[in-house]
Design goal:
The complex is a heterodimer of chains A (271) and B (911). A two-stranded antiparallel sheet of chain A has the order 1-2. Chain A is globular and about 60 Å long. Chain A has 271 residues and is an all-alpha fold. The longest helix of chain A is centred in the middle third of the chain and has 35 residues. With 911 residues, chain B is α+β, with helices and mostly antiparallel strands. Chain B is 29% helix and 26% strand. Chain B has 23 helices and 39 strands. In chain B, helix 1 runs antiparallel to helix 12. The longest helix of chain B has 29 residues. Chain B is elongated and about 155 Å long. The chains are: A mainly alpha (271), B alpha+beta (911). At the A-B interface, helix 1, helix 7, helix 8 and helix 11 of A face helix 1, strand 18, helix 12 and helix 14 of B.
């Protein structure tokens, strides 16, 4: 049988959707909003730099790190949840899912196509955010070398591989949020349940992460290692947290996607 | 069935949450026995006995470990470590030192005649036990481990008792006099200022413990020995030690007995430690190395001021040391001769990275330098009364994140020397040195020197350590003073800037109360620092327990996924093909489906659709028509039964479904695409070339005109319905399944649909239409399948069901009278007459129709219309009513008259 629901065709199905355009617009708007915010608050006295916010306006690389830090947990999670979690249930509620199934697109093939396109769109969003931040930061604050805490200075040949690694790690980290949304979407056929449920888990996990009483159990919380990529921006990058975070993400993503496939392959399509 | 993925998911997560493969061993439980051991009495004759506990796991003779505790604690502080060592195969003896906890006696600060002698008595105790391995009669195989108070005890015990086989001393002192009265000026023998804050802490700890006892020991000495207490209090009052105190402190220190220490020694010293710094361990190490003892030095980033970034690493090192040197296990990991922790970068999250070297080089090896310049006028004031005092150490927090620079660099009381930006990155390992030129108005100068890293407008301290200096000077004359800053490790990043801060006061020390003014300059505008080349520690600790646990969990999850894939593939493999049905477009056989709540939606449904037929699927709501159609399309899995299209089984995703086009429970389109784009997207999903799509024919069926290029969300219900029918016809499938195709269409459109479906079937294809519009079905379909309550009531050709030669339906102009009915019934050849309504009668006869009409006219009826055809609606309602009442198999046994239910229904009387 010829290949059904090829990826480019699935992409065309998702491309014209309102939510795709809105998320893209949001990604483009965020760095501009930050620049505007800093411009408004510029006349405040700057004390000692105790957080990345103070360092954000020192240059393009600093600004990009700041943008990734601000958006890394919640916003990129929402983007991943929407691209991955909304794709199956929205077709179910529009009524077109059953017609795809009767094409016939085999169930696994349908999920795979949607997954691939969702993952690609998420990656595109993160890469777009990063490159756009670099550009906007460069125009606003200049393309100077990165200055971190404690006098750490990294020039562009040092910062670019770190940025690439950080973007890759962020992408991998939010993938687990997307995988959770995917699983919830496949189970409930409701787009709101999928995206909302995934965000709920992210928020609860962030709350629990603050409880010291949980001790080392917190390492199992999704997004516990979401900031581990900051360790890369030292003179000697430390990849311990990045390794742990990647392993946890891979574990959760495979488990959730596996559960989603298992469920979808066996369920009765009543939508 | 659906609970399974959740269970698998839960299992995978639980697997991951069980992080550590438990430490090797722990096969035997640890037994703890406590006892009281009498030791030497106090000077005033009070008998003393110690609270002792022995930890043991397993049987047989084991090497022994004496495990001491820190000041102000008791043996319970080291309970965890004792258990760990016991599980590892050692017999561990812990005790509470005299003057603490439940033991008797008073605190003598590790006096050779008291605490050290007590420890010797404990070694004697070990020698008497038969479960301790012996080197010789009365010489047990024993090692001593201790931290701080217990560490000095360990060194002193090993230096005075030849029976000890190895020592591990952590964060402890070499010379208590130098530790409590530190002097950072090089080559000055005078005692430095007293570590006031620490002394106060010790006293309050012991006083509190003293008050808790019964009878309570009086403050301020608490449980201190009176002599020791008196001397210390006097020194605290004046800020200077008496000669007596200095001698006493020195004799209570390992420095006095190191010459006798010949066994391998591990020294762990902390960089987060303002009480006993790295210089103390350095003196011990060099003394031991001088007479050839094997020494390993480990600089950890914990200490008395705070925990290490990786506390387990230090405990592991002690255990490895014991394995190697006490148990003689050469396979155990070797502790390097010198290892040190690098600073954790600012804001970093992970534990520190380590380096190691093959020999211990001391605090001053290597030659690095950093140029310094003075920041301003080099004059500062030492305030009268010593207040306000700079705060430089104490609250160090984590890696100096909470900067206390403004609290340290009090204006007018501090002088700063800032460096140029660092050219090449370097790591400081040891004690940096700076040479100052001091001119003062008094004859004694007390200074405190600290090292800061500059960032933006302020500075932070990667290591919260301070070097106190007290030198005698001639007022008005410049005196050169070489200052050795506290030893630690610092990371000098490229382009970073550093600052040496000199203050006249420090809140942790006993400050001079005499006011004075000092002028400080740099004798050499350079900060020299030692560096050591080390290799990264590759203990295999890059794979920690969390990573191992995660990899195990990952493997488990991947196995589960592999099992799922295998079952899915196997299911797909074995499906039979019915060659006898190769010419039958659609065969439904014995389909059964129950919903989770137990309701049987479809119960043994079987029917067939042949080529060229338009099959109507009829039934009331809830008959199971839509469920059956969904099963035919592979959307729902039947509990029992099969569906074949051209002899090939239909399952979800079966390729044969390419030959089936469907419209089920309404159309479904992507609202943001136009009608044409939707059809094209759907066809693109099939993967077949556009030339096979018959798009133009389908769009002609939809008859949308220009609207076909507008977004579907602007369509009306009827437009969507037509487009849905068009989508079902894309590719001209062999079987066309339409569920309520006329839903939302107006009469002209319904009328237009009729010939389309007929024409479609006439080309040799099959159409299955499920509808409630019985009039439409009557006109469109060639065959019907009637369902009710999940069962098939009847199947058959429409013509056969509706057309019956035997029936004539006559409509009358005037209402029929009973007399006329009776008259007609008596006519020979007429079997049955029923008045369906006032003006309509149905006559069943064996005569020809014209004869029936003639008979009716003769009977006096005003005949206005004659038809031979019954309406499907009447037939259908009767069938449903009949089947519901009898609840019997419609093709069941014939009754007495040789007629089945279907036969009887052919003569149905309307309600």
């Amino acid at each position: 049988m010829t290949r059904t629901l090829a990826w480019r065709h699935e992409l065309r199905r998702q491309w014209g959707r309102t939510r795709t355009w809105w998320l893209g617009a949001l990604v483009l708007a965020i760095p501009l909003v930050f620049v505007a915010a800093f411009a408004i608050g510029r006349n405040q006295v700057r004390g000692q730099a105790t957080s990345f916010i103070d360092l954000a306006t020192l240059g393009s690389a600093n600004f990009t790190v700041f943008t990734l830090l601000m958006t890394g947990d919640l916003l990129l999670g929402i983007i991943a949840a929407m691209f991955l979690g909304d794709t199956v249930p929205s077709e179910a509620s529009a009524g077109s899912l059953r017609y795809l199934l009767t094409v016939p697109v085999p169930r696994a093939r349908l999920l795979t196509s949607k997954l691939v396109v969702g993952v690609a769109l998420t990656a595109a969003a993160i890469i777009l955010l990063t490159t756009w931040s670099v550009l906007v930061g460069g125009v606003a604050y200049g393309f100077t070398a990165y200055q971190g805490f404690g006098g750490v200075v990294l020039d562009w040949p040092a910062i670019v591989p770190r940025l690439v690694l950080a973007v890759g790690y962020l992408f991998v980290t939010v993938l687990q949020v997307g995988a959770l949304a995917f699983f919830l979407g496949v189970r409930t056929d409701a787009p709101l349940a999928a995206v909302g449920g995934a965000m709920l888990v992210v928020i609860v996990s962030a709350i629990l992460d603050n409880l010291d009483a949980l001790g080392d159990l917190r390492h199992a919380l999704p997004l516990h290692y979401s900031r581990a990529w900051l360790d890369l921006f030292q003179t000697q990058p430390d990849i311990g947290g990045v390794v742990h975070g990647t392993l946890w993400t891979i574990l959760y993503t495979i488990a959730l996607l596996g559960a989603g496939y298992w469920h979808f392959l066996r369920k009765d399509a009543v939508s | 069935m659906h609970r399974l993925p959740s269970v698998l998911l839960l299992a995978a997560i639980l697997l991951a949450l069980v992080p550590a493969p438990t430490r090797a061993g722990a096969a035997e439980p640890v037994q703890v026995t406590t006892q009281r051991v009498p030791v030497r009495a106090e000077p005033d004759g009070t008998p003393v006995d110690l609270d002792v506990a022995v930890y043991k796991a397993g049987n047989g003779q084991q090497p022994a470990v004496l495990l001491g505790h820190g000041f102000g604690g008791s043996r319970t502080d080291v309970d965890t470590q004792a258990r760990d060592l016991a599980e590892h195969g050692y017999l561990v003896l812990t005790w509470t030192a005299r003057g603490f906890g439940d033991s008797g006696g008073r605190i003598h600060l590790d006096a050779p005649d008291y605490e050290v002698a007590d420890a010797r008595a404990l070694v004697d105790l070990l020698a008497t036990r038969d479960d301790v391995a012996l080197d010789a009669p009365d010489d047990p195989h024993v090692g001593v481990v201790g931290g701080s108070y217990g560490g000095a005890l360990a060194l002193m015990l090993a230096g005075t008792d030849p029976r000890i086989d190895t020592v591990a001393a952590l964060i402890t002192w070499n010379d208590l006099d130098q530790a409590l009265f530190p002097q950072a000026a090089v080559d000055i023998a005078e005692a430095g200022p007293l570590k006031q804050q620490w002394i106060s802490r010790f006293f309050s700890a012991s006083v509190q413990q003293g008050l808790d006892r019964d009878p309570p020991a009086p403050a301020p000495c608490g449980r201190f020995d009176p002599t020791v207490c008196r001397e210390l209090l006097a020194a605290a009052q004046t800020g200077r030690p008496s000669a007596n105190l200095r001698t006493m402190l020195r004799s209570h220190s390992p420095t006095s007995v190191l010459a006798g220490l010949q066994v391998p020694t591990l020294l762990v010293q902390g960089m987060r430690d303002t009480l006993f710094g790295l210089d103390q361990a350095d003196k011990t190490a060099r003394a031991l190395l001088d007479h050839g003892t094997e020494v390993a030095v480990r600089w950890t980033d914990g200490g008395h001021d705070g925990p290490a970034s990786d506390p387990d690493a230090d405990t592991d090192a002690v255990r490895d040391w014991l394995d190697r040197h006490l148990r003689g296990d050469l396979g155990a990991a070797s502790v390097p001769a010198f290892s040190w922790a690098l600073p954790v970068p600012f804001g970093g999250t992970g534990p520190a990275q380590w380096r190691q070297a093959n020999s211990y080089p001391g605090l001053h090896s290597g030659a690095g330098s950093l140029s310094l310049h003075s920041d301003g006028p080099g004059t500062m004031l030492a305030p009268p009364g010593g207040q306000p005092a700079s705060i430089t150490s104490g609250i160090s927090g984590t890696t100096g994140q909470i900067s206390s620079y403004p609290l340290a660099a009090l204006p007018g009381q501090s002088i700063a020397f800032t460096s140029d930006p660092v050219g090449a990155a370097a790591t400081v390992v040891g004690a940096p040195q700076v040479r100052l030129l001091v001119t003062s108005t008094a004859d004694e100068v007390t200074l405190f020197v600290t090292l800061w890293q500059v960032n933006d407008t302020s500075a932070s301290q990667p290591r919260a350590l301070v070097a106190p200096v007290r030198v005698a000077v001639t007022p008005g004359r410049a005196t050169p003073v070489a200052v050795e800053l506290p030893a630690a490790t610092w990371q000098l990043d490229k382009a970073s800037t550093w600052r040496v801060l000199v203050t006249s006061t420090d809140s942790a020390f006993a400050n001079s109360t005499v006011a004075r003014a000092d002028q400080i300059q740099l004798a050499d505008p350079v900060l020299t620092f030692p560096t050591v080349e080390g290799t990264a520690v590759t203990k295999g600790d890059s794979i920690d327990t969390e990573t191992i646990g995660l990899l195990v969990a990952l493997i488990a999850v991947l196995l589960a996924v592999a099992v799922l894939v295998a079952t899915a593939l196997r299911r797909r493999a074995g499906r039979p093909v019915r060659t006898d049905l190769a010419e039958v477009p659609l065969q439904v056989e014995n389909l059964t489906k129950s919903y989770p709540d137990g309701h049987r939606a479809v119960d043994g449904v079987s029917w067939q659709a042949a080529r060229g037929q338009v099959v109507g699927l009829l039934g009331p709501n809830g008959a199971g028509k839509t469920t059956t159609l969904r099963m035919v399309l592979g959307l729902i899995r039947p509990d029992d039964g099969h569906v074949w299209v051209r002899g090939r089984p239909v399952v979800p995703g079966a390729p044969v479904l390419q030959q089936v086009g469907a419209l089920v429970e309404g159309p479904g389109f992507l609202p943001h695409l136009s009608g044409r784009a939707n059809l094209r997207a759907w066809w693109a999903a099939t993967g077949r070339p556009e030339s096979e799509s018959a798009m133009d024919e389908a769009l002609a069926v939809a008859a949308l005109g220009d609207a076909v290029d507008r977004p579907v969300k602007s369509y009306s219900q009827g437009m969507r319905q037509r487009l849905g029918i068009a989508q079902a016809m894309l590719g001209q499938p062999d079987v066309l399944i339409l569920d309520e195709p006329t839903n939302g269409l107006d009469p002209p459109q319904i009328a237009a649909m009729r010939p389309i479906l007929r024409a479609y079937a006439e080309t040799g294809r099959t159409v299955v239409v499920s509808s409630h519009l019985l009039a439409e079905v009557e006109q469109t379909c060639t065959h019907v399948v009637v369902m009710d309550g999940g069962r098939v009531i009847t199947t058959g050709a429409v013509a056969d069901l509706l057309d019956g030669e035997a029936i004539t339906v006559i409509s009358l102009a005037t209402p029929v009278t009973d007399a006329a009915l009776t008259a007609l019934r008596t006519v020979d050849g007429i079997t049955d007459v029923t008045a369906e309504e006032d003006t309509r009668i149905a006559v069943t006869a064996e005569m020809s129709r014209p004869d029936v009409v003639a008979a009716a006219v003769t009977a006096g009826m005003a005949v206005s219309e004659v038809t031979g055809r019954r309406h499907l609606e009447d037939l259908f309602l009767a069938m449903i009513a009949e089947s519901g009442v009898h609840d019997a198999d419609p093709s069941g046994p014939a009754d007495a008259g040789g007629q089945t239910l279907a036969d009887r229904l052919r003569k149905v009387r309307p309600r």
